[in-house]
Write the structure tokens for this entry.
Amino acid sequence: MHSSLEEVLNYFPPVLKDALAALPPSVQNRLEEVRLRRGRPAAAVSGGREFFLGPSGVARTPEGAISCSEPLMSAFLEAVSRASLYAYAEQVRRGYITLPGGHRLGLAGEAVLSGGEVRTIKHIGGFNLRLAREIKGAADKILPGLLAEGRLCHTLIVSPPGSGKTTLLRDLARQISNGVEALGLPGCKVAIADERSEIAACYRGEPQLDVGRRTDVLDGCPKAEAIMMLIRAMSPEVLITDEIGSEADGRALEEALHCGITLVVTAHGASGEDICRRPVIERLVRSGGLERLVFLSRRRGPGTLEGVFTLSKAAGGHNIRPMPAISAAITAVGGSRV
């Protein structure tokens, strides 16, 4: 059984625990999510494929799946929260609970608002347990293309949801922080603004995943505020954050650029052209704040590397050019898995 599944198995009520333990090793090893919805069949996602969970593993039909009854849902929440949901109040307000090992439990239910802001979630009726997996070496193929004359370039990683950009970002953080002697890349001071606890998967302030020996993490703080705090307090050489897009994000990243900090960031998107038309990202490109574009997809499974491109400002827009050596290798295999 894969270690990620072993770490979460005891949270589940016996019927679900037995179902997950009965899955074939090939399914367990690629398990990404376990989804429980009150009154509906239990489901899971492995290798990008969703299926229902039955008493003996994979259910052939929804009718043959385990039903997520009220007692089952309550028992699961009690196990996850250690019978004290109040202790996780701030995380619940943000819609998830981070578990030891960096696994994240997403919550759906009825939001309680105060002053236009979410204060908590009650009547929780949906869980999405996302298993944290670190893949050391995920950035090996890409990192050489992000270097120019011995320095790390400002980099944007783009992909649709669930295509591996956070996994790639995590391994980039590790390698940049530790340094890669073979590439002439010295170890750097790295700061991670980890708003949703996905990159470093901190638990009680300690990263559960390897993000490097020179890395500082500000966990659970809104990105724009976290970036400014890290700039002031931690004097990073490289700043890493996930899923940029708001105007506040853009202003904070521009401030980091003015301080001489290298950016490595991600965004959701269907293509490089699409993403570069967004105002915040277009401004960063125009200011020279983004020099490399990495595009991932799920075409050959999560983490399919579609290309590494150079970004440069141009009159009336931007230029996106493939990195010749990397693009040739990708073309030869029809999309490379990172």
In short: The chain has two domains: 3-130, 143-337.
